[in-house]
Amino acid sequence: MNQTVDALRAIDDQLSKRHIDLDQGGYFIIYLDREAGLICAKHFTNVIDDRGLAVDPETGKVIPAKGKVERTHSTLYTGRTAKEISIIIFEQTQPSPVTRLDHAAYLGREFVRAENALITGQEYIQD
């Protein structure tokens, strides 16, 4: 790898460590269905408590950022490209499940990464 790629990756790695405010509209788990050729995004609702933590609206328990959580998604969105799934979520779904612009930007970046992994056959892991 050349130094430019390493430098750019270092910038993104550093930015991934910043604080982000959570979206009241919920969160998404993004994955690929390679057999169907789809980018998939499971949407989960949540409530943000007074500490800024996401909690399960049914149980009131904090939803951990890492590790496996047994919850049922409210909606499954799919698309063949990053643009298609973005249009479905941000333009065709009313009201949109995304309430923050930074969350929308993040999802757009992730959908592009997922599309690239789908095309190249590389592994996709949501950031």
Give the helices and strands, then pairings.
Layout: H1 3-15, E1 27-33, E2 38-44, E3 47-48, E4 54-55, E5 75-79, H2 82-92, H3 101-120
Antiparallel strand pairs: 1-2, 2-5, 3-4
What can you see in these coordinates?
The structure is a single chain. The protein has helices at 3-15, 82-92, 101-120; strands at 27-33, 38-44, 47-48, 54-55, 75-79. With 127 residues, the protein is α+β, with helices and mostly antiparallel strands. It has one domain (3-120). The strands form two sheets. Strands 1-2-5 form a three-stranded antiparallel sheet, with helices on one face. The chain has a two-stranded antiparallel sheet with strand order 3-4. Helix 2 (82-92) packs antiparallel against helix 3 (101-120).
The domain tally reads 1
C-alpha termini separation: 21 Å
Kindly name the structural category. alpha+beta
Within the largest sheet, what's the order of strands? Answer: 1-2-5
- Total E-strand runs: 5
Largest sheet: 3 strands, antiparallel
Large-scale geometry? globular
- Kindly provide the radius of gyration, computed on alpha-carbon positions and rounded to a whole number of angstroms: 16 Å
Q: Please report which band the strand proportion falls in: under 5%, 5-15%, 15-25%, 25-35%, 35-45% or over 45%.
A: 15-25%
State the order of secondary-structure elements, H for helix, E for strand: HEEEEEHH
Assign a percent range to the helix content.
25-40%
Q: What oligomeric arrangement do these chains adopt?
A: single chain
Unreliable spans: none
Mean pLDDT level: 91
User: What's the tally of helices?
Assistant: 3
